Amino acid sequence: xxxxxxxxxxxxxxxxxxxxxxxxxxxxxxxxxxxxxxxxxxxxxxxxxxxxxxxxxxxxxxxxxxxxxxxxxxxxxxxxxxxxxxxxxxxxxxxxxxxxxxxxxxxxxxxxxxxxxxxxxxxxxxxxxxxxxxxxxxxxxxxxxxxxxxxxxxxxxxxxxxxxxxxxxxxxxxxxxxxxxxxxxxxxxxxxxxxxxxxxxxxxxxxxxxxxxxxxxxxxxxxxxxxxxxxxxxxxxxxxxx
Length: 242
Ligand code: SAH
Known about the structure:
Blueprint: E1 17-21, E2 40-45, E3 63-69, E4 80-81, E5 92-93, E6 106-117, E7 123-127, E8 136-142, H1 145-148, E9 166-169, H2 171-178, H3 183-195, E10 210-215, E11 218-226, E12 232-241
Parallel strand pairs: 9-12
Antiparallel strand pairs: 1-2, 1-8, 2-7, 3-6, 3-8, 4-5, 6-7, 10-11, 11-12
The structure holds S-adenosyl-L-homocysteine (SAH).
S-adenosyl-L-homocysteine (SAH) is lined by residues 26, 29, 31-33, 70-73, 98, 100, 107-109, 130-132, 135.
């Protein structure tokens, strides 16, 4: 038997910033970053990390790693989880998954850096974030493609991007979009998000059900429709301003 080293002590970490995003709720957010590029998100640094010196030179990098806390997930975790990609029934180890229900609730996302604003504190504009508004961020660091991009890597039960669904808009939904200044980008955002099929894996097939998903300041109500050829698409029934 080896003598085991004493277990390390617990660490205390402090958020360096907080996310403001187009996603007021967890439900509907794409399950990985880079899947809804129209989604706006900012990382607002908190004192004392909001000194512009902390980001000097960062503008020369196009992509960042964010380490954050899944603060809206329960602290409780289990050794086995059911990834949506496996249909919501088959189980894999929590460490074989990107589940948000994990020890320490740490998340990791690769996002695009669009802009750095240091006029009043530090605000980083991001593209492709998969983070709910209010997410506490623990660290950010630049992405190094020569070391960290491994296209030959095996990716287990998620070998490629999931298939996407076609998305339609009812006349009522189009009327709401037409009246909004951000109508075109909101339409595109809704399309990107619904194309990922946010319905829980185990619910798919419950066709009559109308789902609600919040994006920006609206509640998007949508429903699955199956056409004559058996193709499922998601139809935006109505868009309600909150
Ligand atoms: N790229 C990250 C996230 C994967 S899970 C990683 O691999 O670590 C992505 C899901 O996390 C999203 O669909 C969203 O529903 C959920 N999510 C985003 N921010 C969250 C938060 N602050 N708390 C709990 N869940 C969150």
